[in-house]
Amino acid sequence: MRELFAIIRQDKVKETLEALSSVGVDSVTVHTVHGRGKQGGNIMEVVDPLMRGNIESVSKIWKFPTPSSMAGSSTLTKPVFWVPKSMLDIVVSQVPTEQVVETIVRVNRTGRNGDGKIFLLPIEDAVRIRTGETGDAAIV
């Protein structure tokens, strides 16, 4: 068993869930998340007009960390936008993990910044609370 979580664009959730269902993955938890990647949350609308930042959650970062005694004299450099994304949380045991990853990549790859990331983790065990089943039986 492996846990897979994918951070993807919000407008790709429906299409991704349909594609996952077609390869046999029916159990998915979807979270709305906010974060920033290697660009620091900067959104260049010329490059990616579909990506919108959450302006209400703008914070400021310091160009260089300063001691608290000098913090008052430092200047803020740029806003950091927390970009809204969706996180899919999936535990796979019946469908090959590689097939699930390929499906998510196929649907979500646009070639633009912000396409997302997929992370894989091992799962030691699972327990279905209602029946007490463990292992793969608890997943399906």
Can you describe what's shown?
The protein contains three helices and five strands, in the order E-H-E-E-E-H-E-H. It has helices at 13-22, 97-108, 136-139; strands at residues 2-8, 29-35, 54-62, 76-92, 117-122. Strands 1, 2, 3, 4 and 5 form a five-stranded antiparallel sheet that branches. Helix 1 (13-22) packs antiparallel against helix 2 (97-108). The radius of gyration is 19 Å and the shape is globular. The N and C termini lie close together (11 Å). The model is unreliable at 54-76 (pLDDT under 50).
Using the CA coordinates, give the radius of gyration. 19 Å
Architecture (CATH level 2) name = 2-Layer Sandwich
DSSP strand (E) fraction? 25-35%
In CATH terms, what is the fold-level topology? Alpha-Beta Plaits
Shape: globular
- Number of helical elements: 3
Sketch the major β-sheet.
Answer: 5 strands, antiparallel
Architecture blueprint of SSEs:
Elements: E1 2-8, H1 13-22, E2 29-35, E3 54-62, E4 76-92, H2 97-108, E5 117-122, H3 136-139
Antiparallel strand pairs: 1-4, 1-5, 2-4, 3-4
Helix pairs in contact: 1-2
